[in-house]
Design brief:
The complex is a heterotrimer of chains A (175), B (357) and C (371). In chain A, 18% of the residues lie in helices and 31% in strands. Chain A contains three helices and eleven strands, in the order H-E-E-H-E-E-E-E-E-E-H-E-E-E. A five-stranded mixed beta sheet of chain A has the order 1-2-7-6-3. In chain A, helix 3 links the parallel strand 8 and strand 9. The radius of gyration of chain A is 18 Å and the shape is elongated. In chain B, a hairpin with a 2-residue loop joins strand 1 and strand 2. Chain B has two domains: 73 residues, no CATH class; 283 residues, no CATH class. Chain B is globular and about 65 Å long. Chain B starts with a helix and ends with a helix. Chain C is of the alpha+beta class and 371 residues long. Chain C has one domain: Cytochrome-c3 Hydrogenase, chain B. Chain C is globular. The chains are: A alpha+beta (175), B mainly alpha (357), C alpha+beta (371). Chains B and C meet through helix 7, helix 10 and helix 14 of B and helix 4, helix 5, helix 7 and helix 14 of C.
Chain lengths: 175, 357, 371
């Protein structure tokens, strides 16, 4: 059993470039990782003795909404710049410790590595994050929409600047 | 019966038509209506529910009548991609196959649709028509569930006909007749003359026969369950997998025909089992009519006994349905080919040897 | 020359009696043998997460009811426990006890549906109605307490909506007394039925390693022989005060981790839940049912991931706050959603009838898979 700070120190030592910072928020400390290195970091977390994170509890895509906001005349918001993030909640059943990782990707080019090959559990979670937030997971075997219709082309609903389309396949959307 | 009517009416054709329709209207239709209601009531009783209890008084007696009226009014939907001819013929064929089987079943000493010497053979043959109907319906629906259901059904019914036939063969060796009325007549007088208790044999043979008769009965009962697609062998219409199998696409009266023929079929196989093993229309003890010297009472009593025995086996079928889960298709085949058929064969040989004694 | 053959693609659902809701399974078949199963979900997507962003924190609770609508109480429970940890609120003792009682009754109700419908999938009608009979009593207990039978909105942040009805404790005890023999009845009727065992044993085997890798939780994971229950392993509320066992699969009728094991774990979990409710009823203290909480709930900036042992597995809420009265992001990690991921893997090489048996043993509720 290790605290999150200890885990961060181990990671920092192993990946000095890719493990970026440790935010010690009292409710939930978070380790920020380079989105293109998350696969390596996670593999290390699972395989290293003393860490052994065997389960991915949750994987959530989040729109940080920290870019430049412009108010459109129709009352909606458009966001430019800023980041989209993915949060990974890992847990080790053997050693009973947890850690939260975060990767932040630029909003215009949201690409992160997939961890599907490490925890199969990530498969649908990543598809959901892609579906809802629009984060593209590299090397994911089957990155399709999951909850929305396959031919939904009006954007990613959980983004903070999402606008409902007027019509979907000739059906009126707002009711 | 035909002869009686012929004398009464004096016209060959009319007499034939009346003789053919009589069991349908007098017995099968009312029976099917009541059986559907009984099924509901039996299931309700077993499941801690009330069942139909509004229409037709406290026991919902008119429930099925209302259901049939509803089905009459339903639109008769034929899917546009379906093969219309086959689709329309299928329910008729199924119903015909079922109904025609009743012709050779003796309801009482005085009434048998057609007193033919090849009765049993005829029943086995004509009820195979049902398979053709089911396969036709499944194929013509152009629906994958129907198709799978029909394929399963064909495989199942054809397979289970083998143990049925083997047991019937054994019974033919014991009784020496294919005529169900004659077989029933042989088991007359008292309960120990029923075939299940060794039939009309006497002495050591009778006691040797009893265990093998029991085995025969179990085998034929299991295989007839499978032939009429009842739980635990209701795989062709397994509603949790195949929606309703071969009759998924049917609606209205065509559906009702499948539905009615299922219940008619249940009674038909129960009647065959009764006639073969349980004395057919014979009373387990003497007749009231004989004692009192009222000769016309005897056939009525026989009808009562026949219906009572048949309905008891129908009830057992319902009982099983509401108790047991359903087998899987490969397990069903295993039961048939690996257990029932070998047992039926061995049984056939042994019964043959005993009758030779 | 060999005939050209082709696999048949069978679309099971979205309207199908055994998919437990609007799930579509694209089944590739070779005769009756399954080559591949592709689940398609999302037919019941109701934008739970987007809704939450427009609601204040307490207003989210009614929406949690509608996730896994067969275990609404426990969804409430998960959310309020997470929120209370986020806010640092301590709730009164009585509240904790009532929550545990409600939660465990809900677990029994949810498992009853799981077992009943499983029997139905296999073709046994009657156990289904027996299960519903017992569930009915539990729903009456809930109705007596909070007025609703399905969507309770009973647990609030820092307390409960209503105190227990004065008749609740005796009625609940009466129910437990009646219910215990009913479990034996279910076992005799279904669990040890030869046909049922034949249909479920050695079907859909899920090895422990695979289960952990797929993030499987709840009775499914325990059916694979892993002794893992958040009530013991990551205790929340007051579960550490009760004496109960974690039933695990043993491979008693077939291989470890088959459908029968998953089924039977649920049966035994009901027995354990009965034990917990009995203990909680014995210890139930008097007191207040609401903690003193601020009128406007504003958690600190940051995030939290809270998880509870829902009847179906690990129910996790990931809640992010930007310091306002509305959550910035709520992500729900539903047990049904995650347990569903392994479904395609389990089905390979089985027959069509087994798809239904496996799906039933996964025990999904589409309200939660699709959110």
């Amino acid at each position: 059993m290790k605290t999150r700070e200890e885990i961060f120190n181990i990671l920092k030592q192993e990946f000095p470039q890719d493990v970026l910072e440790f935010q010690n928020i009292p409710t939930e400390p978070i380790i920020t990782v380079n989105p293109l290195a998350i696969h390596r970091v996670c593999l290390f977390l699972r395989e290293t003795a003393g860490l052994e994170f065997d389960t991915l509890m949750c994987l959530s895509g989040v729109d940080d909404a920290n870019g430049e906001k412009t108010n459109d005349p129709d009352g909606s918001v458009t966001i430019k710049g800023g980041t989209l993030s993915v949060y990974y909640h890992l847990h080790s059943m053997k050693l009973d410790h947890k850690v939260t990782l975060r990767v932040s990707t630029p909003r215009e080019d949201p690409e992160a590595e997939s961890v599907e090959s490490i925890w199969k559990c990530a498969d649908w979670h990543e598809r959901e994050a892609y579906d809802m937030i629009g984060i593209i997971f590299l090397h994911h075997p089957d990155l399709r929409r999951i909850l929305m219709p396959y031919d939904w082309d009006a954007g990613y609903p959980l983004r903070k600047d999402y606008k409902n389309p007027e019509f979907y396949q000739g059906m009126k959307v707002p009711y | 019966m035909y002869n009686l009517l012929n004398n009464l009416i004096g016209n060959d054709y009319l007499a034939a038509v009346v003789a053919a329709l009589l069991p349908l209207f007098v017995f099968i239709l009312p029976y099917a209506l009541m059986a559907v209601l009984a099924e509901r009531k039996v299931s309700a009783f077993m499941q801690d529910r009330l069942g139909p209890n509004r229409l037709g008084g406290k026991y919902g007696l008119l429930q099925t009548v209302a259901d049939i009226l509803k089905l009459f009014q339903k639109e008769d939907i034929v899917a546009s991609e379906a093969d219309k001819k086959l689709f329309n013929i299928a329910p008729v064929l199924v119903f015909t196959g079922t109904y025609a089987a009743f012709a050779a079943i003796p309801f009482s000493g005085a009434y048998i649709g057609s007193d033919i010497d090849l009765g049993l053979f005829y029943i086995v043959a004509i009820s195979s028509l049902v398979v053709a109907g089911i396969l036709m319906g499944g194929w013509a629906s152009n629906n994958k569930y129907s198709l799978i259901g029909a394929m399963r059904s064909a495989a199942q019914i054809v397979s289970y006909e083998i143990p049925t036939a083997l047991v019937i063969l054994a019974m033919v060796m014991v009784t020496g007749s294919l005529n169900l009325r004659e077989i029933s007549e042989m088991q007359t007088a008292y309960i120990w003359n029923w075939n299940i208790f060794g039939g009309a044999f006497s002495g050591i043979e009778k006691f040797l026969l009893i265990p093998f008769m029991l085995i025969s009965f179990v085998i034929i009962y299991i295989s007839t369950l499978a032939e009429v697609n009842r739980v635990p062998f209701d795989i062709p219409e397994a509603e949790s997998e195949l929606v309703s199998g071969f009759h998924t696409e049917y609606s209205g009266m065509k559906f009702a025909m499948f539905f009615l023929s299922e219940y008619a079929n249940m009674f038909a196989v129960s009647a065959v089992v009764t006639s073969l093993f349980f004395g057919g229309y014979q009373s387990p003890f003497g007749y009231l009519g004989n004692t009192l010297g009222i000769s016309w009472l005897v056939p009525l009593e026989q009808l009562f006994w026949f219906a009572a025995k048949g309905l008891f086996f129908v009830f057992v079928q319902m009982w099983l349905r509401w108790t047991l889960p359903r087998l899987r298709v490969d397990q069903l085949m295993t039961v048939c080919w690996k257990y029932l058929i070998p047992y039926a064969f061995v049984n056939l040989i042994i019964v043959g040897l005993i009758t030779l004694l | 020359m060999a005939l050209k053959t082709e696999e048949m693609v069978l679309n099971m659902g979205p309207q199908h009696p055994s998919t437990h809701g609007v799930l579509r399974l694209e089944v590739e078949l070779d005769g009756e043998l399954i080559i591949n199963v592709k689940p398609h979900i999302g037919y019941l997507h109701r934008c739970f997460e987007k809704h939450c962003e427009a609601m204040t924190y307490p207003q989210v609770i009614p929406y949690t009811d509608r996730l896994d609508y067969l275990s609404s109480m426990y969804n409430n429970f998960g959310y309020v426990v997470t929120m209370e940890r986020f806010l640092g609120i301590q709730v009164p003792e009585r509240v904790e006890y009532i929550r545990v009682i409600m939660g465990e009754l809900q677990r029994i109700a949810s498992h009853l549906i799981a077992l009943g419908t499983y029997g139905l999938d296999i073709g046994a009608y009657t156990p289904f109605l027996y299960c519903f009979r017992d569930r009915e009593t539990i729903l009456s207990l809930f109705e007596m307490t909070c007025g609703a039978r399905l969507l309770y909105n009973y647990m609030w942040v820092g307390g409960l909506s209503h105190d227990l009805h004065p008749d609740f404790v005796p009625k609940c005890r009466e129910f437990l007394k009646v219910f215990k023999p009913n479990i034996t009845e279910l076992n005799n009727l279904l669990s040890y039925n030869k046909i049922f065992v034949e249909r479920t044993a050695n079907i859909g085997i899920l090895p422990a390693e695979t289960a952990i890798n797929y993030g499987i939780t709840g009775p499914m994971l325990r059916g694979s022989g892993v002794k893992w229950d958040l009530r013991k392993n990551d205790p929340y509320s007051i579960y550490d005060r009760f004496d109960f066992e974690i039933p695990v699969g043993t491979g008693a009728q077939g291989t470890l981790g088959d459908c029968w094991d998953r089924y039977f774990v649920r049966v035994r979990e009901m027995e354990e839940s009965v034990k917990i409710v009995e203990q909680a009823l014995d210890q139930l203290p008097e007191g207040d049912i609401n903690a003193a909480i601020p009128k406007r709930i504003k958690p600190p900036v940051g995030s939290i991931y809270g998880r509870v042992e829902n009847p179906k597995g690990e129910l996790g809420y990931f809640i992010m706050s930007d310091g306002s009265t509305n959550p910035f992001r709520v992500k729900l990690r539903g047990p049904s959603f995650v347990n569903m991921t392994v479904f395609g893997e389990l089905c390979k090489g089985h027959l069509i009838a087994d798809v239904i048996a496996i799906l039933g043993s996964v025990d999904i509720v589409l309200g939660e898979v699709d959110r």
